[in-house]
């Protein structure tokens, strides 16, 4: 049964990650809750699983010409530096504290997504002065 939960956790994390939604937001809680991984190990597994997904994503984005090389260093360099610093911080944190920090991160991310979706749907609503044009129906 343990192997089933490992396979299910990996599959769900991979599918969600492949869809671009951040597989770690599900993989880490699944590994800690159902597979009894400690927080540090679950996050390490997530980072290792992220490597092939990110390589494939970069290749696909490069083929579709969605990467802007002039912004690459201004985005990638700070991201790498902060990631290295955060990994040193995570190593030195207690597992329970790290787990709580990750939980609050997920709550904040959920709230941000909720407000972002609400703002997006607000901007799509037609104003009172706009008319919605419906296609004509030809009943024959």
Provide the fold topology.
Layout: H1 2-18, H2 24-34, H3 39-63, H4 69-92, H5 95-124
Helix pairs in contact: 1-2, 2-3
Polypeptide structure, described:
There is one protein chain. By secondary structure, the protein is mainly alpha-helical. It has one domain. The chain contains 5 helices and no strands. It has helices spanning 2-18, 24-34, 39-63, 69-92, 95-124. Helix 1 runs antiparallel to helix 2 and helix 2 (24-34) runs antiparallel to helix 3 (39-63).
Kindly estimate the percentage of residues that lie in beta strands according to DSSP.
Answer: under 5%
Q: Please, how many domains?
A: 1
How many H/I helices? 5
Overall average pLDDT: 81
Looking at this protein, list some descriptive labels.
140 residues; mainly alpha; globular
């Amino acid at each position: 049964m343990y192997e089933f939960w490992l396979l299910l956790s990996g599959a769900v994390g991979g599918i969600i990650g492949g869809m671009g939604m951040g597989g770690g937001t599900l993989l880490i809680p699944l590994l800690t809750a159902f597979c009894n991984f400690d927080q540090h190990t679950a996050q390490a597994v997530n980072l290792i699983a992220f490597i092939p997904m990110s390589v494939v994503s970069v290749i696909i984005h490069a083929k579709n010409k969605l990467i802007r090389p002039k912004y690459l260093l201004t985005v990638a360099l700070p991201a790498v530096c902060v990631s290295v610093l955060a990994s040193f911080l995570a190593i030195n944190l207690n597992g329970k504290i790290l787990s709580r920090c990750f939980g609050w991160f997920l709550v904040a991310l959920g709230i941000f997504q909720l407000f972002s979706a609400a703002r997006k749907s607000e901007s799509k609503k037609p104003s009172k002065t706009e008319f919605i044009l419906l296609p004509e129906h030809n009943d024959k």
